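Note to self: the last two entries modelled the partners one at a time, which told us nothing about the interface. This time every component goes in together.
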Amino acid sequence: MRRKSGALAVYAAAFLVFLYAPAILLPVFAFNDSKIIAFPLSGFTLEWFRQILGADALHDATLNSLFIAMTTAVLATALGTFAARAATRYKFPAKAGIMGLVMTPLVLPEIIVGVSLLVAILQLGMELSLFTIILGHVLICTPFSAAILGSAFQNLDNSLEEASIDLGRSRFDTFRLITLPLVLPGVLASLLVSFTISLDEFIIAFFLAGNETTLPIYIWGQLRFPQKIPTLMAVGTVLLAASLTLLATAEFLRRSSIRRTGADAAKGLM
Amino acid sequence: MIRINCVSKRFGDIRALDEVSAEIHESEFFSLLGPSGCGKTTLLRMIAGFDEPSEGEIFIDGKSMDGVPPNRRPTNMVFQSYAIFPHLNVAENVAYGLHARKGTRVEIRRQVAETLDMVGLAGFEDRQPHALSGGQKQRVALARALILKPKVLLLDEPLSALDRQLREQMQTELRHLQRAVGITFVFVTHDQEEALTMSDRIAVIFEGKVAQLDSPLELYRRPVTKRVGEFIGVMNFLGARLLAEESGGYEVEVEGLGRVKVPKRQAPGGVSGSRLTAGIRPEMLTLEFDDAEIPGRRANGKVVDTQYLGDMTYYEIALEGIGKPLTLSMRNTADRPILEPGTAAKVRWGPDSVLLLN
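The predicted structure of the combined assembly is written out below.
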């Protein structure tokens, strides 16, 4: 038994190293005083971060991406809420088929989604813009949102809403005072997941961007210039720090809201 | 108080309720009793306003409830799952429905305390629902509904999730509470014992139809059909043949018992045709332990099985001329012996022991 658990520990350690070592290299080279990404390290510098401040194209791309990601998160979560609500509360013909279609973008190759959206949008005579990117991102984020919110609504006892109405409250009050607080962790998780997916999505954005640039497209473009790579490392470091902060905040909110309802907060990640 | 007027409910092709009519009186403890899936909960939900009748109409306090949503009805409900809001504490749960009423915070707090005291949860205001036991959640659900002083309190199998001891205690408490507040209670249950002990009147529902609406005593003593008799308590059924109809009752030939005169009141469902069923409750038969000549009919038989329950003994008695043994119960007393299987036994009955069913 001891030998067995020893082997498992080695496996687990190797797994974690493989998963996170590349990400740890980002900050290491971001602060390294050399244009070449290689060991040994040559010294500490904040030069690459200073270059971020001066890169206007990077700022535009970042603002575009943030705008797209936030809009996508809100739209996908709204659509996901409708889908999840329908799936858990109502019976309608061909329900399984319809829910299957809602979830299909999860497994469709993004390159196919990108190409077909491009063809469709051009056929419709629409201009490629940030809006068309948002359309594509909403399409791929909605299934995630529907899945996350589906489990949130599933866990919500139908009679809680009935009890609220029975006690004299309006439907709006019931939503505000009972439904929303109880599915809020799910809504936040959905916003977060959609935001993250959209923020670093490259393929669909690449097809649908037209003249616009998003952060992933910008980074991809900069890779052609070796001297820009340390700056990209710095950009990556900022993104890493931002997503870790976001994730930690979301998990903290989720746990505190679950603790209020008395369930075991440690159960289930996200 | 509540008039249910020829109400039907269809879900697709399924008829959940079929032309149900009933009148529920003021301050009455009224039970809807039936096996699961018989439509009793559907009827309760239609009184609450969660479902609309497909046909027919429900009146509460003389007003038609047609199209009136649950939040505008003078009814409140205690749900089977209790439906305690998990993110609100006990006081917030109980005060939840008071929003529309005028009152200062001090006044609301006083009312909450008073209501919690009434259901035996004084001092529980700040507890979180997850820290409550099933029985305590039950009481919070009651307090939350009763604080609004509804005209009708609807209870959907509220005791089914509790263990036996707590359930019996809650039965008594609910009954006392109902008498104290004087509100009409409509109680849904599949447990016939629960319905018998708590209710003023019971509507027995089978497959969407009211099979019988009566007091517990009448339901038990004089069920109108074989099925009601079987559902409520234990009943022996014997084949019977109508010999003559007289002014006071019927003369029938019951298999195993011979000729029996049955008074009219013992045929609550009326008599049609000559082939009938005789229903007899186990305690309506007695064993004779001495040779004293006591008036009444008797038959000879043999003990097949003895089930000793402490205060009672249940016997299976095979009578001459019938295949299936009769179930008979005797209260145990100090001088009454317990008969072993195989012993010969004399069974006696009176005129009110036999019930005639179609």
